[in-house]
UniProtKB/TrEMBL annotation, chains A, B:
Domain of life: Bacteria
Name this protein carries in UniProt: Bifunctional oligoribonuclease/PAP phosphatase NrnA
Record's keyword terms, sorted: Hydrolase
Organism lineage string: Bacteria, Bacillati, Bacillota, Clostridia, Eubacteriales
Organism name: Solibaculum intestinale
Keyword set includes Hydrolase: yes
Gene3D superfamilies, per database record: 3.10.310.30, inorganic pyrophosphatase (n-terminal core)
Domain DHHA1: 242-311
PANTHER family named in the record: BIFUNCTIONAL OLIGORIBONUCLEASE AND PAP PHOSPHATASE NRNA
A Pfam family assignment: DHH
Record field: transmembrane: none
Amino acid sequence: MREVTTAQAAQMLREADDILILTHQYPDGDTLGCAFAMCRGLLSMGKRARVVCSDPIPQKYSYLYHDMKECAFEPGFILAVDVADAPLLGSGLSEYADRVDLCIDHHHSNTKYAANLLLKEYAAAAEVVFEVLLELDVTIDEDIAAAIYTGISTDTGCFKYANTTAQSHAIAAQMMRVGIDTYPINRLMFEIKSRARFEIERLALESVEYYFDGICAVMYITKQMLQKSKALESDLDGLTPIPRQIDGVQIGVTLREKSDGAWKISVRTGVEFNASSICGRLGGGGHMRAAGCTVTGTAREACDKILKEIAAEREDERNSVH
Amino acid sequence: MREVTTAQAAQMLREADDILILTHQYPDGDTLGCAFAMCRGLLSMGKRARVVCSDPIPQKYSYLYHDMKECAFEPGFILAVDVADAPLLGSGLSEYADRVDLCIDHHHSNTKYAANLLLKEYAAAAEVVFEVLLELDVTIDEDIAAAIYTGISTDTGCFKYANTTAQSHAIAAQMMRVGIDTYPINRLMFEIKSRARFEIERLALESVEYYFDGICAVMYITKQMLQKSKALESDLDGLTPIPRQIDGVQIGVTLREKSDGAWKISVRTGVEFNASSICGRLGGGGHMRAAGCTVTGTAREACDKILKEIAAEREDERNSVH
Ligand SMILES: [Mn+2]
Ligand SMILES: [Mn+2]
């Protein structure tokens, strides 16, 4: 499908009305921040617009739409934001999968399933949305600023991750000048943990074991831990990076027991090792620094399987150096 | 002592040479970022300058000065950065306590012990230093940019805390445009935990207890945990906020066993309770949202003492509402 410029995307929206805004399933701060920023901007232009999501929107994002009324209409234009591929709309929005008029996104993995405003070097789709809103001459009020900020802050891990750019900070500065209070947003996004998340985290931390003189740390998330903590899938976000946060750990491994008893292994590495190569030895794959594979057996057996491949990888590294 | 403007501070530095730059004891990213940014800027002007600190500089900050040579001279001008009061220079620098020619700072608690460039609304002293360097026409190279960024990022908790301003983000954007890679800095500052810190954290998490239907969480840091984890004082930073990060917890309590067997209690509250008022009941004090007190007894007795006062505080709150 064709690529469009920011100006062209703005023109398409200017000509549209009754705009249905689609977010991706398991919504995050970027897709929701984009959606409500666009929705508020379009409403301010006198258009009808509403946001839909295949999944329930987690309570912590309610400040994004606290004051908004439901807007009923037959969709005349369909906009997808931060949605890299049509199936990611989720089952609840599958009826729109072939009918998206415009997609505003930043994912490298975008499949170009619609007319696309795709800016891959942007840290958040909210940065793209911000430029479209400026092009539309929308006044950035506090609600829009909070939504844009939310998208940028969540996709950059509060400006910590390597995807953060000067532009991310520059837009955050502009959003703060509008008058928003960013700490309450960041507290909701990054500080507060559900009780179940807190419980699963402490059980997982207790399970950490060190191997190879401490350069490898292994953490378990078992079915028993999930039951004990009452943790849901959404409570497990951000657990796999933990082993690699321990000083001296070059290979962080998380072993997650699936409902069928198999183990999903996540491997995170520093510059010293190739996670994708380690997981490839067990039929998995991924990126240089983050990869995964699946194995069967008891916890001990699963751990031994990945340790054996890490040992082999270390051996190969050593041989290739000499 | 007199207040000076940014232009006046720059003029003082322009006229000075053999500049000794003092940081505060237990150095953090802001005092070190300020010091090495200033030092590099002054060196680039053809002056002699060096940084001194009463305490050893933690290894994680070594990127700030990795390439710098020791510069020997008899001090002709003494500059303190991010040092709110002369005693905070520490015992190793006490000989300079009465001889500081210029202090560049942002602390509300600054005691004006020297000619002062004090900008209290700035999130980091590094933001003040940045303005002084611009006034001095110093070219902001990557090393200076990394130092300024470090100061801002550490003092704002990576742009998360309530002290973050639009200016903090705007300067971060400028530093990134110089070409620095911020993720490695933030990983060092915010992600990597010493093994001892990791151990003390997991022991502390295991100890968490809930009271009053989960609106209060209590966490312990005992002498035994300190021994077992081999944690140092510097490993305990950032533990006391943990109980208040659990969803639904309005009063987070940390009970820390001191070497003499007494318990140092830290209380963190949300908007619902006054931490200072709770701790005041046990002879302590502090701020509305973060306060402390000290009690004696066993762990159980110490916990019961603070719970009793929390119950009394809840009772008083209830009565004052009706
Ligand atoms: Mn995104
Ligand atoms: Mn500071």
